[in-house]
Amino acid sequence: MSAYEIHADFVPVAGRRLFVLSHRPVADTRGGVLLVPPFAEEMNKCRRMLALVAQGLAGAGFWSVLPDLRGTGDSEGEFDAGSWSDWKEDLRGVAAALGTEGWNLSSLVGIRCGAALGLETARDSGWTLSNTVLWQPVVDGARFLTQFLRTRVAASLMEDRKETVAGLNQRLASGEALEIAGYSLTARLTDQLEAVRLSTALGSHAGRVTWLEVHPGETPELPPASRACIEDARTRGVCIDSAIVGGEPFWTSTEIVVNSEIISKTVATLAAAA
Amino acid sequence: MTSTLNSLQKILGDTLQIGPRAASLTRADRLLGAIPEFDSMAVVSIVTMIEERFGITIDDDDLSAEVFETLGSLTDFVDQKLGH
Fold first, then answer.
1. 8 Å CB contact of B44 and A249
2. Which residues in chain B are closer than 8 Å to A155, comparing Cβ atoms?
3. Domain containing B66: what range?
4. Could you tell me if A218 lies within 8 Å of chain B, comparing CB atoms?
5. Residue A201 · residue A232 · CB < 8 Å
6. How many domains does chain B have?
7. A140-188 per-position pLDDT tens digit
8. Any bridge partners for residue A15, and if so which?
9. Is B52 an interface residue toward A (CB < 8 Å)?
C-alpha cells in the first residue's frame, strides 16, 4: 500500500477555474488515471464511488485526477453555460496543466456519460491510453437524453399536467432553458449530447478496454445495446473485456450506494496492466 | 419462469432500495404517491429497467399516473406491452 497525498486545486481552463481533486502517491507513480465523471445528478450519486476508487488507485501507486467539469461541483460557471464540447476542453486543459506537474496520463476511468466524453477527448487530443475502464457506460446520447427528460415527464404525471419528451424537445429547440431535476438544460448542450455515440469514440486509442456493468440479480447478460457496441468495437480491432457485477444502480439510487466489486476490479485491472 | 409480477417486485426492490419489502407487495398495493421512495427519478429508473429487462420500448404516450397507480396496474401495462 503506497502512501499518498490528496490535493484540491483550481486549474485555469479557458479563463475559468476548474476544481480538480488529485490523489498523488508519495513515491514514484505507476501512471496517471483520468477519472471522468457522469452527467448531472449522477455525479452526486457517484462521489463516494469516485473517492474510493481514487484511494484504491493511489494505494496501488497510481496518480488519479478527478475534475469537476465547468458548471458542476466546485468549478466555476453555471450548469447551463457548459456543453459537451466545453467539457472536452476542460478535460484537455486539466491533462495539460497537470502534465506540467509530472502527471503522466496513462489510463482513463469513465463513468456513464463520462465514458464517451473521456474517449472522445482522448481521440480528439491524440492521447494513446494503455487502459480504459468504463462503468455502466452510456452507449447512446439520444437515448440517455430521453431518459433524462423523462424525469420531468414523470414529475408532471404526479402533478396532473402531462408533459412529453417530444414537447420538451420542441421547447428546447425554440431556445427555452428547461429545468430538469434541478439542472437547467439548453439546446446548446442537448444538441451535442443527443449526437453522442460511444461506438464512435471507442477506438484503438482506448488501449485495453474493461467494460463493467452492475445488474441486480443472478448474472444476466449485458443489455443488447451494450453488446452491440462491444461487438462493433471488436470488429474494428478494439480489445474489450466485459464483466457484470451484482448490485444496485449506484449512479441513480435514492440512497448512496457503494459497489466495492466495481472499485476492486478497476484497481486490479489497472494494477495488473501497469 | 418468473411472472411479470415477480419481475416487477424485483425491479421495484432494486430501484427503490426497499429490498424484501418489495417481495411482499401485492397487485392491490399502491405505488405512486404511496411509497415515499417512488419519486420522478425512480419512475424513470423503473421505466428504463423495464425496457431493458423485458426488451420492450415504452413511449411517452404510454406513461400515465394510472399505470403507476398500483403494482397490479403496472403489471397489466407490462403484460399488455409484451402482448400477453
1. no
2. 40
3. 2-82
4. no
5. no
6. 1
7. 999 899 989 998 998 888 787 788 899 999 999 999 999 998 899 999 9
8. none
9. yes
Alpha-carbon distance of A79 to A112, in angstroms, equals 18
CA distance B26 to chain A (A): 20
The answer to whether B37 contacts A254, with C-beta atoms less than 8 Å apart, is yes
> For A37, left (φ over 0), alpha (ψ -120 to 50), or beta?
beta
> Between chains, do A41 and B41 touch, taking CB under 8 Å as contact?
yes
Instruction: State the average pLDDT for chain A.
Output: 93
Phi, psi angles (nearest 5°) of residue A147: -65, -35
* Count of domains observed in chain A: 2
A133 and A158 in a single domain? The answer is no
Q: What angle do CA A259, A264, A265 make, to 5 degrees?
A: 100
Cβ–Cβ < 8 Å for A40, A71: no
- What is the enclosing helix (H) or strand (E) of A65? strand A63-67
Structural domain containing residue A167:
141-195
**Contact call for B45 and A255, based on CB within 8 A:** no
Structure ipTM over 0.90, yes or no: no
Same domain, A104 and A238: yes
> Contact B40/A224, CB-based, under 8 Å?
no
The distance of B67 to chain A (nearest Cα, Å) reads 10
Query: Please, are residues B30 and B65 in contact by the beta-carbon 8 Å criterion?
Result: no
* A168: chain B residues, CB-CB within 8 Å: none
The region that residue B11 occupies, defined by phi over 0 for left and psi between -120 and 50 for alpha, beta otherwise, is alpha
At B21-39, the pLDDT tens digits run 889 999 999 998 888 888 8
DSSP-H helix ranges across B17-70: 20-23, 40-54
Q: What is the pLDDT of residue A80?
A: 87
